[in-house]
Batch of 3 targets.
Target 1
Amino acid sequence: MDTIEAIRSRRSIRSYRSETVPDDILEQILEAGRWAPSANNSQPWTFIVVRDQKVRRDLANIATYGRFLAQAPAVIAVAIDPDASPHAVEDGAAATQNMLLAARALGLGSCWIGAYGSAYEGMAKDILAIPGRKRLLSLISLGYPSESPIETRKGLGEIVFHDKYGQK
Amino acid sequence: MDTIEAIRSRRSIRSYRSETVPDDILEQILEAGRWAPSANNSQPWTFIVVRDQKVRRDLANIATYGRFLAQAPAVIAVAIDPDASPHAVEDGAAATQNMLLAARALGLGSCWIGAYGSAYEGMAKDILAIPGRKRLLSLISLGYPSESPIETRKGLGEIVFHDKYGQK
């Protein structure tokens, strides 16, 4: 799929068909995460592929906005090492966004669940056995979509300035 | 350009030819930023398009790793509003990554300069007149590339676990 089309048509998908995500598709998604940019090419990320149903259920049970994690056939957790990069949060977010776009291009639906700094983070870290200083940035649910939600965005006129903030 | 190819072939480009970036190309890049996902669709971002040479020079002069900002024909600054989203940093990073990928797909080179939380951020905020509570997340330099740098990444075997952290 064309890059601009993938960016423009990606939606947060929270409802999935029951088919599993093939290994080769999952690997292409992880590859997309691997090639994200990071500060000084530090690559401060670890990707945990969660297929085990009990682990997905445990993650879903503690997630106010992530009950659908139990139904998603696969989940990727993005952990980051804040000691490895001064911009570990941005780096992990770039890897997450690459994986969402790759998922879209490969026909999968996905949803980004923000964990970093939330009440959810510590509990999810325990479930995933993420060690002390590492942080959980995000969870990405993955599956073949069974919904086509509509999303809207502010127009460019509302969010773009020229040369200085406030200058139209 | 194909999505996976754009993700896989994007490099940090710090050297540019002198041609300007056409307005319609720049608009497609901003569109890509606009369509990024954000927590609760809060869209906590503002994009400042910097073409003015004095502003680019001022930004370059204070940037240890960003001297090339003076030579890039265009720069996009991504400001975020931490009061608008609990995940404003991740949201702004997703928008930044979308714009880097769109630039690659449209034949442009770009480089992400991390500003958030650095010594550079406050000085750059002053130059760009970004108001008090707003934060400067990143600067994106843009131009037609005059270099083809090689980048490497860790293999998936080093960064992927299954079901729990540490489990191969």
Target 2
Amino acid sequence: MIKRIDHIGVVVNDIEEALKVYQQALGLTLAKVQERPDQAVTIAFLPTGESEIELVQPVTNDSGVAKFLQKRGEGIHHICLEVDDIEKTLAELQSKGLQLIDETPRTGPEGERFAFIHPKSAHGVLIELYEYPK
Amino acid sequence: MIKRIDHIGVVVNDIEEALKVYQQALGLTLAKVQERPDQAVTIAFLPTGESEIELVQPVTNDSGVAKFLQKRGEGIHHICLEVDDIEKTLAELQSKGLQLIDETPRTGPEGERFAFIHPKSAHGVLIELYEYPK
């Protein structure tokens, strides 16, 4: 059902500053920096084994990510798990009484489908699920 | 230098309750539950691809993990990255001015050596480094 950790999302104030730690000091490779206007963020992708660390910088003050940053400060925002069949997983979670942020998957720029589980239902962890196009 | 995400540590109030979500609803496999009196915690290990999700329950009220739970509530506590050569990595981080919690590695029950980077130096993320015995 769950294949791997796709990525860990880390919210930062300034990607350039954060890359001094994650790229220059820790030695991770920077694969790309991508603007995601649909989510009002810029993301730096740093492959780490079969997963990625994503540095996420808000570009407006009113998104969910921007509010998280204002309230909690920089740090881990969410973990994303790759699943085989996102609709089956969401149905299973709902049948067990978990609260979902997205009851049906949204679609990202590369055709991936994604949905978030509410952290109240996952012991304080914001979990994103990803299904890649077959 | 960094090989993969070894694990993500999630602090929870009660492992049995958390397993209802992570094992029963999400379908992750429970590999083992281990008491770690040296860190005053019990840990449930859930392999996830090449990484693990670890559910960490404090067993006293005065450990660092217990205080994190009292202050912040349940949620992601740290991420652990596997490195080839922990001493080389720590030296590199110090040369770049990062603050370390452990300037020299500690040794775990299976011979793994580990050290923590201070979250102030990693944009709010508590990062653990692991080197496995060769």
Target 3
Amino acid sequence: MKAQLFTQFQNIVDRASNEDLAILSQWMNGFEKKQSNEMTTYLSAGLHMERTLTADYCRVSIPNTPYIHNTLNIPHGGILAVLLDTAMGILANHSLPVGFASVTTNLSINYVAPAAAGGHIHAQVTLSHKGRQTIVLTGEIKDHLGRLIAIGTGSFFVIPSK
Amino acid sequence: MKAQLFTQFQNIVDRASNEDLAILSQWMNGFEKKQSNEMTTYLSAGLHMERTLTADYCRVSIPNTPYIHNTLNIPHGGILAVLLDTAMGILANHSLPVGFASVTTNLSINYVAPAAAGGHIHAQVTLSHKGRQTIVLTGEIKDHLGRLIAIGTGSFFVIPSK
Amino acid sequence: MKAQLFTQFQNIVDRASNEDLAILSQWMNGFEKKQSNEMTTYLSAGLHMERTLTADYCRVSIPNTPYIHNTLNIPHGGILAVLLDTAMGILANHSLPVGFASVTTNLSINYVAPAAAGGHIHAQVTLSHKGRQTIVLTGEIKDHLGRLIAIGTGSFFVIPSK
Amino acid sequence: MKAQLFTQFQNIVDRASNEDLAILSQWMNGFEKKQSNEMTTYLSAGLHMERTLTADYCRVSIPNTPYIHNTLNIPHGGILAVLLDTAMGILANHSLPVGFASVTTNLSINYVAPAAAGGHIHAQVTLSHKGRQTIVLTGEIKDHLGRLIAIGTGSFFVIPSK
């Protein structure tokens, strides 16, 4: 299988545009972070997620590159959902005692403007309500110019963790 | 740059688990589809999106692999948003006359069950309202066993296309 | 207190427009239904709610009169929420075994068109997901011409009933 | 018709519980405000809405009485939607130049706790995004103890006013 992968990689690089090469490099850089356990999932590694976490706030940032773009060359609305859901999930779980985890039950996002090209986009979330069985968080996404791109609200359900 | 990419790829393959190798293969297969213009974005290529489209229905499917999993080893809620938003956007744009496009203004998703392991997950969406300036679509995501994973509603705003 | 109420009622009737008189009559008709226990709340009585309920479907209808209008003389968006939430709550509770009730955790409504004047407006809801701890319902509101006015999704949380 | 209304009112008062009498009094007090044009709609009059409005903030309050209760004797979730949608609509319209109005396209509410008995409940909303064609507002509802009852997000579409 490995020989086949090298041939495939060779073919891809041979045909690669400069944009292709940048995406390849970006993706492999992320993949190495997954292999070194710096990242926990292929998804977060591929997106190069960086996080800041405090007791009542979480920020998750990713670079705004063609890797996440839709056909309009702006970040795909679903990727903004990945960003918000990740930040909310991190903060929700962080707020729970040992032995409990949380799962998303509802996520609602309003998209208000396209992100400016380049830089990073940042999801910033806070706790709006922390109940015994449900947690509600709100957040927003800003581009590298600090402009508001989207706002969102997430509901999480508390479950015993395995 | 290319020599550096080969070294990096070599290092990744040397350290790769079987799961890593499967993800590498899957990702490069998708990348080739982007290079051959079978896929229009790196995102849809990486996710191996397949679509079925009629006048009032769109289905988008992707394989359920670790490439899209969260730390619970199930599809990330944000990826389900990517799937729904993509299917809704395709159908919304398809419903418009030449010279018009649509952008998502709101996406709301209810997550009701984890997807069964393996197979594909499928977003199926239909038009609920098609106005002159706004379009509303509803949809659901099912796993390969046909079980409901999530439902969603999207609002789109109609704009002149460039 | 009763004498004061009669004086007040006298003053209101003396100054009443034909629309005022119709509203007064409508409201008192509803109030009598609350007094005779045909209606369980002042709110449902004032709105003259009528319901149709089966195992997996609930319809709640109310007359479309100035009693529920906003300043644009169409049904207030919040009243459409009352209608949907009521129909969803009835169906959610009906689906539960004795000893359990449900409370709304999230309600999301898309408003797609103003209701035609007159007649009744009808909320029709169905179960999308019935879990052990959460229930998700979807529904729509139509006017007396059968045109779609709004669609909505509600999440309910199951609790032991008192 | 007026004679008939008096007979009906007499019958209602004869059978009225103390709670009934309080509701009758409350409702007629509101009705008089509609007749004197202090209130613009039967709905806002019946609910005894009071508002505070600045350039970027609106608060709407109503008394928490059985008039708005569901069968659990707490404010009906739909009435909280009336409150939020009203406050959001007032602020959205206030933010627009002469010749423009706004209509709600989406309202999403998360219910997080029941309101404490008595007092008033207060919806407080602010502008999150003000575009040329769309406005997004967020808000919360608190009870008279200052506890959070619900949070909500509304999307409005800007239209020429008549």
